[in-house]
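Section 3.1: Structural characterization of target chains.
Under the original work plan, the team committed to producing a structural model for every single-chain target entering the pipeline before any wet-lab resources were allocated. The record below documents one such target. The sequence was received from the expression subgroup and is listed exactly as submitted; it comprises 387 residues.
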Amino acid sequence: MIISEGRKKRLPGIALIAIAAALVIALGVASTAAAQSSNAAASNDSAGTVQLDNGPNGLQGITGATTVGTPKAQASEKIYDFGTVLNATPVAHVFKIRNAGSGTLMIGGVQTSCGCTAAKPTKNQVAPGEESDIAVTFDTRFDKGPATRTITVFTNDPQAQKIVLTLKGDVKVQVEAAPAQVAFGDVKRGVEQTRQVLLTDLVAAQASSSPNGAKGLADFKVQSVTNSSPHIKVEPGARTDGKPGAALTVTLLKTMPLGAFDDTIKVATSRAPVDITVFGTVQGDLTVKPAQVSFGIVPHRQGTQRMVRLVNAGAREVRVTGITSTNASVSATVEPITPGKEYRVTLALRPNTPDGALRGQVAITTDDPDQRSVSLPFYGIVGSFRG
């Protein structure tokens, strides 16, 4: 067959196009085959590849991004009941995580709830059939009654990426304060008041009821008593009822300034520490009734009003000289009911206030030399409540 020169020149271009098309088809087939092979391997436990969770609570810091085979995390026990302990007695336990799978188990972050700490796992990479220990301690100093603490372990087991371990039991106090909170309530300025707190040594009380009694048990002692406010005095002494423990006399001094107060009495004893809360309000001649204003939940775009009374219980007449609000959405006005003795205070929430939590204070200024300003807190929610 004889081919002309023109046709000889066109043949190489046609051949190149054919070759390129063949390569594209071949590459597509190869890519599809590789993808199918990869999917088949991923579905096979013995040769599968599991991606690790490297999120903020996951397996960050663990070397290696994948593991061959499928790991399976098993906790020998997920709940440890430590029974009954006296507070201030530390609880310690070791949880064991075993790898019952065919791939390397990786243990990453360990999170604990309040009052509980966990050591790092003894192994972050656990081979099939091996175990890793997680030692946990629980500080019981400030617990009383039933107590539960959780430990969350993050792993690369696709069926157990989070394992929750639990410590639970009953914590009994060694020393009981009655009352545990000293409430002075509303106290007139310049008036001294006292309250008594009884400390009971429950260790000695329980021991005395046992067959051997309290033999060999050291006597209860108050080692130190501290508090922050110089206007609250605390004096320890002996109980008068013969029971094991001590008594505290808590005195609110005349020097406590006007307004709300709170303090914490910290008692160190030969058994365990005890905290006692003290609170109340010192009032002058001028009082606001009620002492705070709640607008409640106000519908979207609506306004509302609340009224309170400013009452003067002193002999001297008091004049209101001004009133201001810390929140631009709430205005405040005052008008006399009985001049010098009683005033009506009106708080108005303006319409179209933006939705959300509402909080602020109204300051009422007066010519009383002892109470130049009286504070009135207010709060509420505008629009629908979102918890």
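The helical segments are 5-42, 202-208.
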